[in-house]
Protein 1
Amino acid sequence: MPEPPTGERAQFEAAEEKAVREAYAAQGAADCPRCGVRMRERAIGGGSFGLGYARKREWLLCPSCHRSVLFDVKRGTRN
Ligand SMILES: [Zn+2]
């Protein structure tokens, strides 16, 4: 997926992105550090579940400023 050039799309700073990741890891939810509103989650499917190689990705999107954080969710255990 090509991304638009930097500057056209608002981005978090590294420290803000880290805070979002940590909040999400700890609470299962995160608020936008800039707006203070709850960020929306979207799961991004890898499409490889049938192969037993399920790498889950989450995308947190702020509905207010539209900044987003994309990260991998590592799941070491399964039932
Ligand atoms: Zn925001």
Protein 2
Amino acid sequence: MNQSSSRGNSRDTNSNQPNYRRALGHHAGPVQTRGDEDTAARLSTIMSGDMDEDSARHHVHGFHSYPARMHPTVAQRSIDLLCPPRGIVLDPFCGSGTVLVESRLAGRRSWGIDLNPLAVLLARVKSRGATPQELRSLLATAGEIAQYAEARRKEKRGATMRYSPEDVELFDPHVLLELDSLQHGLSNKKNKAAGDVPNRPIVPPGFVFEALWLVLSSILVKVSRKPGDSSNTYVPRRLAAGFATRMFERKAAEFAERVEVFSRRLVRDAPIAKVVESDARDLDVVRDGSVDLVLSSPPYAGTYDYVEHHRLRFRWLGMQSADMQRGEIGARRHLKHLRYSDAVRQFQDDLTDVLRVARTKLARDGKVALIIADSVVGIQPVFAEPLVRACGEKAGLAWIATASQARPHFHRSSQHAFDRHPRCEHLVVMALSKPVSRQQPADIDRSADKAADKAVDKAVDKAVDKAVDKAVDKPIDTPTQTNPTAEHNPQDLCQTATE
Ligand SMILES: C[S@@+](CC[C@H](N)C(=O)[O-])C[C@H]1O[C@@H](n2cnc3c(N)ncnc32)[C@H](O)[C@@H]1O
């Protein structure tokens, strides 16, 4: 086993950055590596050093909250060290677009896929960049919409539509009316009942339109009675009249500033990232055999529920979430009613399906790099590294190397899941285990692949069953990994600093 200690990271000290929220840092600690020596050394470099929250919020990265974002430094180093200079990067769970933003900065072509419509909008707008003229137009339009909302407030116009009991409970009445005017000013929908004041802006579809919807999205929780994005409780908030409107204008200015910094850093002709709303198990838009690096942080088993998390935003941005409701992988709402073994198996099957499709997109020397942390289903741990490797193996990917670093677990109710084995985040790298045909997609005969897949499936299924059964048989206070190959103990991967 290789082991590296912490190193300083390449923190960007650009002083033009707006200095907004601080949150949890990316904890430095020893990085433990295993596998191919050269790759392991790269992975160690990628994960080492302090990655503070300030560097995670540089330019467009810090604009809009998103659960479980990848640290931009990890994305940037992974692209530098694992993707050839003119290569193509694919993130099938692109979320807020961290990998796409960093791919553009590194001059790589990139694809982003996500089933969450909010993620797709965020990733597309954040990774796009803008010209000075577009940014001036953004500021001017935000100003017009704010003026329109302010005029409606002063003239005591009512709401343009009926709001759900949820919204009535979530916002103070005057805040709800201001948000309603901002949304109406932005939506371009004619509404006689609204009693429009003159000078209602018309925002043509395009970058400014999409960016301003994100600006509206970014203030929703801040002006609500919810103390935070994931909070389920309400607290009284005393917001002055006009506050929500002023915040909208301020956030538009902040966004423009962030996009300007990002755009200035782009290399000339940096290829635009292509972002598509799709299930990660359906990557038809990406050409077979074309991808040099699949770089992604998949959902953690049983940890998040993106539909629940973004319900408010889906509602206000008019986004359809039915596909996401059905197809979200790892969602707490899907797994919490299952027995532990069934939940782990479900997650494993879903991730295997994603990797099976991703594999067909890989170029001959392409790599898959997944960043994933150990999680908890119910009150039992899910050790992600052996699970990802098992999925990879089933999908026809060979494991190359892993780097792991301890991460604290904050939930008291499931704290004991990591009493014996520390919770870790892992960077797992895999590659094609057998050559993929270089023919054009239409000509590819997959029958040989399928037979081989079947054989691997059978072998791995057997091993996984055994490991999962063993884990389930254990009493809850003796956490067990679901490592099908039983090659290592999670403890080996994440010893504390003195190791
Ligand atoms: C850990 S987040 C990725 C965060 C991202 N790396 C970032 O920096 O913002 C996992 C993502 O998987 C997406 N997701 C869940 N199920 C999916 C599916 N079936 N197909 C595509 N995306 C899915 C979620 O919407 C979420 O954006």
